[in-house]
Amino acid sequence: MSVTQFTSDARLEDHPPGGFLQRIAAILTALLLLTGSIVLGITPSAHAATAGVGYWSGNSFLGAFNPGTDGRQAYCADLDAAPPWSATSGPQTITSFDSVSRQQLAELNYVMAKYGQSSDPNMTAAVQLFVWSITSAASYNSHGMSGDDYNVTVAPASERPTILGYLAAMRQEAAVYAVTDPSLSLTLSLSDQYAGTVTVATHPSGLTGAASLTNAVFANGAATRTLGAGTHPITGTPADGVPSYQIDAAMSVDAAGFGAAIDLYTTPGEQRLINYVAGSGSGLSARTQSPVIELDFQPEITTQVSSRFVAAGDAFTDELAVSVTKGTWIHLDGTPITVTATGTLYGPFDEQPAEANAPPGGALVTGTETVALTGAGSYTSPGTIRAAESGFYTWVWQIDKHAQGGNAKYLTDSFVDRFGQVAETSIVPFQPEAVSEADQRLVVPGDVLTDTITVSSTNGAWLKKDGSFIPVILEGTAYQVPGTLPPALSVTIDPDAVPLGTVTVTADGPGVYTSPEVVTTTGGFVTWVWEVKKDMQPEWVRDYLAADWADAYGITVETTSVRWPITVTSLMREYNVHPGGRAFDVVTVSGFPANHGDFTGDGYWNADVDELTHTVYGPFATDTELTEGMDLSDAPVLAELSTPARNGVYKLGYTDADQIVPTAPGYYVLVTQFVGDDRVQPYQSSPADVLERFFVPPTNTKVPVTVITQATPEAFVGQPFDDTALVQGSNIPDGAYLVFRAYGPNEADAEPVCEVPFFTSKDVAVTQAGIYRSGPTSVDTAGNVYWIETLYDADGEILAAGDCGAPGETTVVLDQPDDLTVKTNAVATVTLGDPAHDVATVTGTVPDGAKLLFEVYRQNGDTATCTADELVFTSALISLDGPGDYRSGEVVFDRVGTYYWVESVIDAEGTVLHRGLCGAPDETTTVTAEPEKPVTPETPKPQLAVTGGGSWLPLGLAAGASLAVLGGVLLFGRRLAIARERAGYVREEDEAFHEIEELFEIKEDSQ
Fold this sequence. Notes:
By secondary structure, this protein is mainly β. The chain crosses the membrane at residues 20-42, 952-972.
């Protein structure tokens, strides 16, 4: 306790402090007692007190005693009593002591608890003085002076001020902090289901102690904490899944030194010792519990579509990530409650909708799906909604609290996510397709073709990105259809179709577009096929397109007929006909498809027109009337004849049924016409064609000698060309001959100059009226070549001469084109057993090492097909050393029928640079059986001069005829040259024509 001071009532001689004998006796007594307890098995219940920390002064002690029972320092309560050297028992907590008030008890308890255990003798001396001043107040102050000043004298004089200072501080502090009844209370308060506070109230306010929480933690995250008075935040921590819980708070305070109570030690007949109340029995505790807290939780959903792009017909699925943003998922009887989430799929939209809190008014709903949620985690929507059309489709998921039935109370609130989130949007790609119609129904080779396409999305909206339609590249290919018939409708492209040209159109949305131009090169049918290929689109566009697309091959409205040009060459047997005589003509027709006349139409393309008309116009007073563009509608007609519109050689005027008998003197011309049909161009021979005219002079006149010429109008550099002269007259002198001279090439825009010829023909003997040719020549530069023909008599005198630059006497020489082109001309008709061949005219740039190959296919069926099954002939490879004419070699076919020639040009690496069209008219040979020779009436012998009399027309015939043959003779000359190369082209029954042809061969041999 405090200091024990021994006064006169506690004599030193009775208990000599520090006396040797007494100490020995005490030690012996203690040993004896200890020994006795050991021997007898008795546990001592009391111990003798000893002086503790303090000061001795003689027989007086001021300071703490050690009771020896609990290891604490205690203090004497009875100032005048004997020291407690005997056995001391206790402590015993008491709440009243003599006449000490409860407040004084509280102050004693407080001071001894706070300062009584000090090891500082000054401090323990001050505590003893504080105790005596209360428990022995009368004795303490009975010396006629301050008890403090009197009793402190036991201590050394040097320490007394310190001791008294401690004592004053203790009294002041005890008056403030000592309380008679300390208290502890706890209050729980919650602001929501989890957040709250625990409020600690203590008396006195400075008490602290250990607090603990159940189902909650303090702000530091721990469930236990040392607290003092005040309000402290807590957070509820219910077990996961529980629907409700309670929070418990408990606190205990070690209240030693507080309250109106002290611990008492007793020594019979001696000094009582007191101390502060120690141990758990003197502590304070409090406990509180919250009401039952009903829990709810807030589930939320974020989603990511399973696939950004969904093909039409496939299911829309969404990947749901469910989380709990408040609380934990409630379990009932160990099972999580079920929460229903509803997903609404909005769409289609033509572009990504803007993100918003809610869908726009009137937004289309594609469908809804529900997912049963039983906890946080991943879910996949059922996939019951399927993509029906193109567009953007976006999910909105919600949890409606009020739709959860009895589980609604466990949800904090409803949930709905935002509309138009990219992650929640799937795209059904659109399918762009085109409906096309060829802009040209009928054209001729060399014309351009275009196609009009109407482009749209066939499975829904044409999608947009950033407000603009997604651009789509469409590729259109114009295919040259094999053969000569319209193409058959097919979902696949004919493997023998030849791409004529490929173009692209970029459609920046649905609409109507016109394709770029494709140039036709030959006759036949051309059909368009349009495609959308994903791999040719910009990479960012590809995923927005549903699939590749191609329209059908052979759609009628997507097809154009490039009408075949026909060629008609004719040879009027009589150039001078006597009055009442007969004229004879042989007409050679080529260029018709081999099956012309057999096509009866298909509902879109009209049937063939199977008739050629041959009209003899005349008489005309002068040949100047026979011009290229003359109006034949009111021209006089001598005879009208017709033949089938098919390839072949037709003799006109050889029978009584088709005789051509002029009725009056004058000029006559035969004009061949074809009105045209859907496969073949219209044709009309020129009224100015000098080879199709004859002259009936008046009776008893002679026809003057005239020369009319027609040069090859156009050729390429290096390509042969020539000049042709028609000599007429009934009085050609013996020994007459023709010389052809060519000048140039000259600049096209310059005035014609004919000074020094670069070509002079041999002398061509002229023995009678007829056609004579110069022989071929060529030049190595482009420009205009001017021809002049001169007819000499035997003495070299000029009988007739042309003019430099005269119409029809100019050959325009062009540079070879850059592109390689190949035109062919096969023998059209042969008799079984006779040879046939093909000639390819190559122009343009020929690569080094290029070779030419001819193949022949026998017709099998009604359409032209050129497959390995029909192949009957393959030529050797022919090396191409530049532009020019290349011949296949002769082929003898073993059976009648139709044969198709196909030429191919291959470069040195084996790449095909050009391949001809299967079934082209100029590439078709018809093999016929040798016919029986019919018995025919005797036909007139050729008459190359006028028989009979009459006067001659003026010598202006030559000049007029020269103007008339612009273009006409050219056609004859070129076809006649080809005809001479075609063995067996004229049918054998055309014997009269053979006589004329043999005559021409004789002429040519003599040149």
